[in-house]
Amino acid sequence: MNIIYDIETYPNCFTLAAEHADYPIRWSFEISDYRDDSRDLIDWVRWIKSQHGRMVGFKNIEFDYPVLHTLMLMGKGDAATLYSKAMAIIGTQDKDVGLGHPVIHTVMLMDKVDATTLHSKAMVIVGSQDDNRWQHRVYPSDRRCDQLDLSLIHHFDNKARFTGLKEVEFIMRMDRVVGLPFPVGSTLNREQIQILRKYNAYDVTATKMFYHESADMIRFREELTRKYNRDFMNHNDTKIGKDYFIMRLEEAGVQCYYYGTNGRTPRQTPRPTIALKDAILPWIQFEQPEFTRILNWLKSQTITETKGVFNGVVAHVNGFDFVFGLGGIHGSVTNENVDASDEFAIIDLDVTSYYPSLAIVNRFKPEHLTDTFCSIYETLKEQRVSFKKGSAENAMLKLALNGVYGDSNNKFSVFYDPLFTMSITLNGQLLLCLLAEWLMRVEGLRILQVNTDGLTVRVKREHLPHVEAVRENWENLTNLQLEETRYTRMVIADVNSYIAVKEDGGVKRKGRYEYDLEWHQNASSLVIPKVAEKVLLDGAPIRATIEGWDDQMDFMCRVKVPRSSKLLYVEDDVDTVIQNTTRYYVAKGGGSLCKLMPPLKGKTEWRRIGVVSGWSVCVCNDIKDAVLPIDYDYYVDEVEKLCLSVI
Q1: Is residue 577 located within the same domain as residue 464?
Q2: Which tens digits make up the pLDDT trace of 305-343?
Q3: pLDDT tens column, 86-124
Q4: Do 307 and 215 belong to one domain?
Q5: Is residue 577 within a helix (H) or strand (E), and if so which, with residue range?
Q6: What are 392-398's contacts with CB under 8 Å, separation 24+?
């Protein structure tokens, strides 16, 4: 049994709304000046536990449950205490202010609970500037009911992927994208509390919808948890892979952590300096002077940190720029529409599991993890092949294989060894350059793109046997495998944005042409890449296609500002503050949007930054408010930017 829930906290009001994940059964609790459901709420949580149920939320492990846990420990709560706890948690999120378990610990030490004392304790902690935000989380063993956090399994706690529930509501195309109805810290009257309860229930509706969107991810974690008797439920994909790898290392007798009075500390190999020649395979050599220049330059470098190593490192070979970077090599022709034909083929060659395979065949490893690391890495790769694609085991082993490289440059990780990082990224790029050098000997062959794990070429079909020979020689030399994909057409704006049509009819989209997006990406104005694809691949007319587009939601845009800023709707020179995450579309006859941002350091004036400057918009957080005509000119202009340079 899964129960979806969400809480809201104000100085004189606490609410919790919930709904059964599979049935239209709803619960609502309130602790306020007008009502006290605290004991009923505690009994309800105990009932869920007795039914072996699980509470599901959005950022609930970081926020909702620690507040609820405080109530569970007190036995009977008041809104002021719960609000103090909530504000302390928010303080650590926004200002690196610490709070954590001290409030709960105070409860446990007191003979009799006193709300005023607890409030004072919380406020002292808020002001303490303790930067340990993780103190708030309640250990799984201490939780009064199992918790599943949808934001964690989607990795929204990562800064690069940070996504709020309002943004998820936008991506799910809900009729309403509803912001908090009253400013944080407001004292609410009875009527306002009823509005808050409706808002709270709507957040649960959105969370429940997202829960069902996440069903496959949840089933995957349930399967792994049962199979390995280890809790994977709130792990993101990367963490699943890393934890499984660590589990296998420990089973093989490799110590991954030091244990002391302050808990566990990961074993690592930090390196004050790294001579890059120690990372590069000694047998790599080139005939192209530019590649040789880059190789010799790299071998002469000694670095103190991995960032900034590749600034401006470019090899210019046969009119193509190979750009080196910490994450991998890249390069591309720009603004070209390339077709296959009876005479020419377009071939993409990608190295199979490139970075894991590099480590395995060359015995690269974090030094402190010994050769056992290499043996386990190889075993995991072999095991993955034995499991059917789509199975939980196959997916987990893929995560285990791919998660190690990125974590080897993470100073908090068991896998941390920056020489291992550089061994992978340097040799990965140099070996692709070697492949490119050999391919460029093929008569008439032209490189279209090179990226982290492969490259794409256009070549005369009569010379395909030569390409195959190069491929075979490179595979024999490197002990790596190349996977081939053939395209009928590529529309390339640049290395980050292109469309590639496969021979089987499938379409690969990147960058500005993507519209099958991940949850953390901004799915604004999807009509633009969708129409651009029809124009580029089918020759559709731009304006007629846009004006005939029948999916209203594809025109919708999303804007978000942080809590420190304000979002303004400006009409007739009057500023109206609107919710921080807002849905809108470019419309005729509307007002304009503007971000009001805090002053820059050393400045005093707040900054006004326009949103789609020069165009008017219609705000429609409730889709019923989408009453103004769409300004098709804006969308036509944006499609033209994607199309005209490559047609």
Answers
A1: no
A2: 877 777 889 999 999 999 998 888 999 999 999 999 999
A3: 998 887 554 333 333 344 334 433 444 444 444 444 443
A4: no
A5: strand 574-578
A6: 392/220, 392/223, 392/224, 392/227, 393/227, 395/220, 396/220, 396/224, 396/240, 396/241, 396/244, 397/244, 398/241
Rounded Cα distance, 82 and 42, in Å: 14
Domain identity same for 219 and 317:
no
60 vs 140: CA distance, rounded Å:
13
Whether 1 and 10 have beta carbons less than 8 Å apart is answered as no
Q: Same domain, yes or no, for 292 and 183?
A: no
Residue 165 domain-assigned (yes or no): yes
Domain boundary among 170, 193, 227: 227
* Strand pairing class (54-57; 2-10): parallel
Q: Report the alpha-carbon distance of residue 293 to residue 221 in Å, rounded.
A: 48
What the block records as the tokens of 510 is 């990147």
- The pair phi, psi for residue 143, each rounded to 5°, is -70, 140
Answer yes or no: do 506 and 535 share one domain.
no
Q: The domain containing residue 432 runs over which residues?
A: 274-351+420-513
Task: With a cut of 50, list the residues of the chain below it in pLDDT.
Answer: 94-131
Q: Which residues contact 40 (CB under 8 A, 6 or more apart)?
A: 29
Beta-bridge partners for 259: 264
Q: Which two tokens stand for residue 59?
A: 């950022």
Domain check: are 203 and 301 in the same one?
A: no
